[in-house]
Specification:
With about 350 residues, the protein is an alpha+beta fold. The protein has 10 helices and 14 strands.
């Protein structure tokens, strides 16, 4: 028993005196316990109801919702109203419920001359320290390396049909569930459920319609949700994939054009199954296929969903025109005219 008691004493940790906020020392176990409890108590209180500093950083030019309350108005609300809003925000987090009236969008029609082509390692959009320039550099560098080593680089640029507007909610929630604690998952689920929209034309509004798919565009969380939804896009050791938002490029390099095309086709077949599973539509006719090479070649066609992707000698991607020899001549001529 003496040996057992001595061993227990050796294993017992001795906590050194703790310094209190008033610079006095807590020496006894009771004093130390009270000091630690006092420090931890700040973590077990409701969120502060004082106006948060972030409210000063809201973009005042953003259009208001159906309630016509602009961010400029919110920034100038009296303290009492801000306190009420804070209570609502806290209740939203506590109950994992997003208020229905905040889930209605207003769509403003405008004339669009050109369609807007708007976490994985291959995604360069909506991420810190990533940009369109990084994605273009990846594509250009892969092509240059292939040409410098006298290889062939086969590339497909995929045109995804209205990705942000057609994100499958059930599929997105399936991917969100294992990533978040239950309360936050339920809050996101409430945020996506029963969303509505109406169209504003001049001063008139249409009646409300349900939104059955898509991420809420214009919201800060929309890019985050889209990245999660596409983060498990299949990759291949034989190809390189890069994306900026929904603008996706697939590249395959090989010593001959047949192998380069075959590697690309095998990866596209895998992607096609993934797109079908997650209800993502590809515009085959608007996608592009190009072979970068210095030598003549007769390349086999590339298809997706049994539809041949149009072959081209030059492709415009993220504002840059790539020609099959990567001379930049077409890009320079186009920009010189403008």
């Amino acid at each position: 028993m003496a040996y057992f008691g001595a061993k227990q004493n050796r294993l017992k940790e001795i906590t050194p005196p703790l310094q209190r906020p008033n610079n006095t020392l807590a020496v006894t176990d009771s004093e130390k316990a009270d000091t630690l409890a006092n420090e931890l108590s700040i973590f077990f209180i409701p969120h502060s109801i004082s106006p948060p500093p972030l409210q000063l950083e809201m973009v005042t030019e953003k259009s208001p919702g159906h309630d016509l309350i602009t961010n400029k108005v919110i920034k100038n609300l009296p303290a009492k109203t801000i306190i009420h809003l804070t209570h609502i925000y806290n209740a939203t987090l506590r109950l994992s419920y997003f208020p229905t009236t905040w889930k209605s969008s207003v769509i403003r029609l405008s004339v669009i001359t050109n369609e807007n082509k708007n976490l994985s390692n291959f995604q360069f959009g909506f991420r810190a320290n990533h940009s369109k320039t990084h994605q273009l550099h990846l594509v250009a560098d892969t092509i240059s390396t292939a040409l410098e080593t006298k290889k062939y680089c086969a590339e497909v640029f995929l045109d995804v049909s209205k990705t942000f507007d057609t994100v499958w909610h059930e599929g997105l929630l399936f991917k969100l569930k294992p990533l978040f604690p239950a309360p936050y998952y339920l809050l996101l689920k409430s945020y996506l459920d029963n969303r509505t929209f109406k169209v504003r034309h001049n001063l008139q509004h249409s009646k409300q319609f349900p939104i059955a798919a898509g991420v809420p565009q214009g919201s800060d969380i929309a890019p985050f949700l889209y990245i999660i939804f596409t983060s498990d896009l299949p990759t291949s050791e034989k190809t390189i994939i890069g994306a900026h938002a929904d603008d996706t490029a697939l590249l395959s390099t090989a010593a001959d054009h047949i192998t380069a095309s075959l590697q690309l086709q095998l990866h596209i077949d895998t992607l096609s199954q993934w797109f079908t599973k997650w209800k993502i539509k590809i515009n085959e006719s608007k996608s592009s296929f190009i072979i970068f090479a210095l030598r003549p070649h007769n390349c086999p066609p590339i298809s997706i969903n049994n539809i041949i992707i149009p072959h081209s000698n030059e492709v415009k991607y993220l504002g840059l025109i790539f020609d099959r020899r990567r001379t930049w001549s077409s890009h320079l001529k186009t920009n010189a005219k403008s």
